[in-house]
Amino acid sequence: FDYWTQILTKPLPSIQQADTRTPSMFEQSGVGDRFLTRSARIIHDANFPTNPEPCWRISALSRAVAFKLPRPYRVPFMPSLTVLVPHYGESILLEPKDLFDKKQWLQDNELARQGLRENHREVPLVSFLQFRYPDEFAAFANRMAVQKPVWHDASTRWDRVTDEQWPDLCEWASNRSQTLWRTVAGMTMYHQALQAHKELQGITESSMYQRWTPRESFQCLVSMQMYAYFNATQHRHTNTMFKKFEALKVAFIDKRDIPSSDCQEAAWDEVHPNQPRRYYSCLLERNPAIDDSDEPATSDARKPRLTVELPGFPILGDGKGDNQNHAIIYTRGTYNQCIDANQGAYFEQMLLLPCVLGEFRRRLDPNMDPQMNLSRKIVGFPEHITSDIGTIGDFAAGAETAFGTILQRSYAVLGGRMHYGHPDMMNKVFMIQQGGVSKATKTVNLSEDIFAGMDFTLRGEGRTIQHTEYFHVSKGRDLGFGTVLVFFAKLSSGTGEQVLTRQMARLGEFLGLAEFCCFYYAHGGFYLTQWCLSKCIPMLVYLWLLIVLDSAEENCDVMDPDPDQVASSKVMVSFLISQFSRVMLLFLAAGISPLIFELTLEGGFLMAMRKLIVTMLTFSPLHFVFQAKIIGSYISNEILYGGAEYMATGRGLPTERRCFIAFDGPKKGLYNDYAVTALHDGAKLFMSSLFVIIITGIPSTELFWWCVALALTIASWLFAPFIYNPYQYKSDQWACDLCDWLEYFSGSRFSCLEKHDPVQLKRKRSLQQQRVREQTGQGEASSPDDYKPSKSLQCDWNTWYLKTVLKPATGIRTAAGSILVWTVYMASWYTVLNSKVHIIKTVLTPAWGLLTQLLPLIPPVVLSYVACVWAVHANHDLTRSRPAAQEADASRASSAKWHKFQLALLIVLLDVGEGVGGLFCFIQFEWYKGLLAGVMLKYAWLSMLCLFAECFFRINRKAYSCSHGHKYNWKEKQDANSKCPACRDLGVQEGADIKDAEGCFFCKEPPMPGDLTDEGQAVVPGFRWHMEEALYLWLMSHRMAKDIFISGFIFFCLSFGVIFDKCRGGLCGVSYGIHNLLVYRDPGYQSNAASDAREMMGMDLVPAAAPALSSSGRPRLQPPVVEHELQDRGTFSPPASGSGGGSAGRAAEAAARPSPAVAPVDPVADATLQPTSSAEVSASTPN
Question: Which residue from 182, 649, 1055, 1108 puts its CA 20 to 30 A from 236's CA?
Fold first, then answer.
């Protein structure tokens, strides 16, 4: 305290005491005044900022200085710290084309004028950033106008920005995006903070103090794994960082090939002669002669100053852990801090570094427990999540805020906190002794960071990991519905591997009960609980339906129960009433309480309640119930089957409208992403609940809370991905989705649009043409009518099912738990139905005999399988024969798809007819419970037989034809001359033509009907070939029919939202987008009149003269009038995140919000909420 008092009260030598004063916002005021002006904001406080970012920074610094801070280090006795940032392929610095693609912008306007595109325009990323940060942009523009004369004529007409202005604008935008530039710029503030401490201390009599520089105690080391493969632009960005940041160093992995003839070197370094490539860990440093000059950065790769040969290929895991560990040898000093490439920092927080390093001191208090006197080796800090854009981004930011603050604080006290990679500081020497800062074994260490904390807990001699609350760094998290779920899927898969490791078993023996309970809840227990929650509702519905259908039939006197005995269905209802009551509200409050408590501590109770209300109004339970389903699915699959893989999440803006179902792009539709994990189970749960309602009627009010939980689960599992899909309910996009749905299953191209709207057909073909051009680099077709989808972009249901679900010849994956579940499921329904069949046979119709007893119990597969055998015999195009030939003949392929679509519907009708025929006895006696029990049993039979058929094709190498160069490429990394697993089993020599491999069903097509043998005789298929092909067709027909009905039901329900959205503007006169309000928490609509008015004004942002000041003390910009050449009117489209204009062309119209008063903008800048670039954007600090 004395140190900080001395520092804060001592004036700088260059500033006179009379020139300094305390800002009015820091003057003391009463509790009531602070509540009214800053917490509740009932009364405006002109001295306190309204921008939420500086408000948080001021409050965070105020809380930090109120902590009991450790004794800080002083210059020049500051320990050395190295910030380690792993980098793979993330954006380094935004380019002008990322912020504003002038060519694409003009092309979109031209398409809109010609009527070949929907009446909306894509808005540049720079416009979104200006819209998102109006105060920061106004300050930046005014600062540039004062510092650089070239900025006097600048404006937000981005097509008029000159080449001299773009570098500054790109740097400003990069500091507000999830880029490496933002991370390095924030971390190098340590250098400035240490220099500030040296100047404030002012110890002039010490020679050591005079010689000391911040570089002796700090360096920022970026481990660029792919630097050796950078292009010219990435090299230029890296060189720009060297010129900008003095404390920067770069480590990377390089390689060198040794010619096979040079055996002398291979013998000299004692490396195996069959390893012709050497790998090196290299270090780059600043070159003062180049980096301190005023010359612009070049695009040349730099030569490393240090090179260390590695023992072999260094990437053993998923990349990040190896990338960190190989660079540790270049870190200097005692301590390392691990930082991700999407983080940032704040200067006022960097000033607390001397106190943070004091956390590692050893306590020498003799009255303390010896275990508490041990020096700390890992110290963790909270993160300030800045990526709260949109509803899903706010959900993810809230969850991460709670996890990184109050939960980490609790885990540290209870002894269950581990190392989570960032932004922890650690003792480098101690971490090297246990294998590095991360574990890097593939699959097992998918969550690489936590294993360092687990090993530290086992080897730390009783030490615990400290969590400190007074020091923060910023963090950008996922923003979209899909990216958030992919992130949790990756964590779930990693946790599934964790619970099987020896570290987890040893911690179970090493930790005490309290510590282990905390560790379990904080890690594996959380994900296992999510799995239990996802299985709870389906299990209860299954038991309820089983009990209801097992009860006595109402019109059968033989089955009348004992009147003194309580019916089993009533017992089940009583159980549900007791378990699902108002107590659910308590569980809901317990789940959200950590975030509410933390927000109360940071911003007050009113802000926390406002956050809670907004979260509930935007249907957060729908998202978190679906998230629990995804987590449960991935962790259970990982524990049962294994095979965890790294999944790149990406953190793009949630602005891209995903199509309903995939058709012609490398990206899948929403239905394809979640059909297997959630949508199928949601449909099963809905049908089971519907059967219960049919038998028991509408539930009473006593089951209100149970019905709420059941309805919430069904709605979430079926509709959550589509509810949070931007612009899901736009009518023009609904027509495109309908067309895609028909094309996806039937193969008929543009059938719905050709018949109803030829203009819309041209528009869609133009969009399809644009996707091909952007995704494959192909040239533009002469006209939209000449457009033909590329073969590489074609994707129908057969392709999706074979690649993602069936996966032929990949081996069977099953577990004892799955077999047990299927056994119990089948046995339960067989027992229920058999008891009713027995009564019919013995009491009611004894003359019917064995046939009556067998027909209800056997699976309905005879008619459908016979139909498939006939189809195989009649039309060979329906089989797996010659996909290459089908690709060559488009009409033949389209006909085969259409016939499969028709056959799937026919198979369903045959199954229904055979099933109804087998259950006719229940229909005759009006035993509806027995009828529904028979339906459940027969559906269970079909599901199990389909599962057996899939297992057969997964273990049978004849499951499909060649995987090289044909329609379905299971091994995407194998080229036409590589060896497949089947070839290796047969001993095919390296380099041989795999198509000459005899007997290899992967690499050589089996003979098909109509082929000629070497002797010139026609191939005659045998009985086995017919049976296998019929089984294949039977399986595909059932799976296709299932997806047809489920996707059709979901699409039908979503159509009501489209009708409502249409009526909202046409009949009700409501111009605000309600769905935009849900997804973005903003209506996102601007009337055409307001848009036209702004187009006529064409406001500029940067004044030619010094800005005037408004009444609030902020710059007031004077907008001169400029002309606007755009003549078409209408709303604007959202920009695509991640794929340029790929799916953004299909995106519905986005609307605009009124521009802020502090920074008036022109229509181009104020058009929408979203950017077009693939850069990943998050909130950041003003620089």
Answer: 649
User: Is residue 927 within 8 Å of 556, Cβ to Cβ?
Assistant: yes
pLDDT digits (tens, 9 = 90+) for 422-461: 788 998 888 888 877 888 788 888 888 888 888 888 887 7
**Cα–Cα distances in angstroms (integers) from residue 725 to residues 718, 771, 843, 1078, in the given order:** 13, 20, 57, 10
In Å, how far are 652, 728, 888 from 1172, measured between CA atoms?
A: 10, 19, 37
Do 283 and 305 contact (CB within 8 A), yes or no?
yes
Instruction: Look at the block and give the residue holding tokens 């956050």.
Output: 611
User: Cα separation of 1112 and 867, whole Å?
Assistant: 79
Specify the DSSP element, H or E, that contains 321: helix 320-325
Determine the Cα–Cα distance for residues 699 and 606; give it in Å rounded to an integer: 38
For residue 748, report the phi and psi dihedrals to the nearest 5 degrees: -80, 125
Tokens (6 digits) for 861: 């597969």
- Say which amino acid occupies 448: E
Query: How does strand 1108-1109 pair with strand 1115-1116?
Result: antiparallel
Hey, which of 359-363, 891-895, 982-986 has the most confident mean pLDDT? 359-363
Distances 261 to 254, 267, 991, 1061 between C-alpha atoms, Å: 22, 12, 20, 72
Q: Following CA atoms 292, 294, 299, 305 in sequence, which dihedral angle do they give, to the nearest 10 degrees?
A: -10
| Cα within 13 Å of Cα(783), Cβ side | 5
Total residues belonging to the chain: 1183
Residue type, 383: E
Cα atoms found within 13 Å of the Cα of residue 806, Cβ hemisphere only: 26
- Looking up tokens 């026609």 gives 1018
CA distances from 1060 to 118, 221, 736, 1055 (A): 21, 55, 18, 9
DSSP helix/strand/coil, 244: helix
Decide: 1175 and 476 in contact? Cβ < 8 Å.
Answer: no
Instruction: Check: CB of residue 113 under 8 Å from CB of residue 1128.
Output: yes
Nearest to 487, CA basis, from 399, 415, 556, 375:
399
Q: Residue 369: how many CB atoms within 10 A of its CB?
A: 10
Residue pair 183/343 in contact by the 8 Å Cβ criterion:
yes
- CA–CA separation, 982 and 996 (whole Å): 13
- CA dihedral defined by 946, 947, 950, 956, rounded to 10 degrees? -120
**What number of other Cβ atoms are within 10 A of residue 1112's Cβ?**
12
Judge contact between 962 and 1005, C-beta under 8 A.
Answer: yes
pLDDT at position 19 is 58
How far apart are the C-alpha atoms of 1054 and 1060, rounded to whole Å? 10
Three-state SS for 329-386 is HHCCCCEEEECCCCEECCHHHHCCHHHHHHCCCCCCCCCCCCCCCCCCCEEECCEEEC
| Structure-block tokens of residue 387 | 């990526």
DSSP 221: E
Find, among 389, 425, 329, the residue nearest to 176 by Cα.
389
Nearest C-alpha neighbor of 549 from the set 693, 414, 650, 706: 693
Read off the tokens for 1044: 């047809």
Q: Are 742 and 752 in contact (CB under 8 A)?
A: yes
Reply yes or no on whether the pLDDT at 648 is more than 60. yes
Instruction: Tokens for 339, please give them.
Output: 């930082």
Structure tokens at 854: 């067998």
Closest by CA position to 58, among listed 23, 108, 110: 23
| Nearest-angstrom CA–CA distance, 1169 and 449 | 35
Question: What's 35's DSSP letter?
Answer: I
pLDDT digits (tens, 9 = 90+) for 817-848: 888 899 999 999 999 999 888 888 777 666 66
Question: Omega into 561 within 30° of 0, i.e. cis?
Answer: no
- 3-state SS assignment for residue 665: coil
CA separation for the pair 883, 910 (Å, rounded): 28
> Taking the model in full, what pTM does it have?
0.82
> Quick count: other Cβ atoms within 10 Å of Cβ 891?
8
The reported pLDDT for the residue numbered 122 is: 59
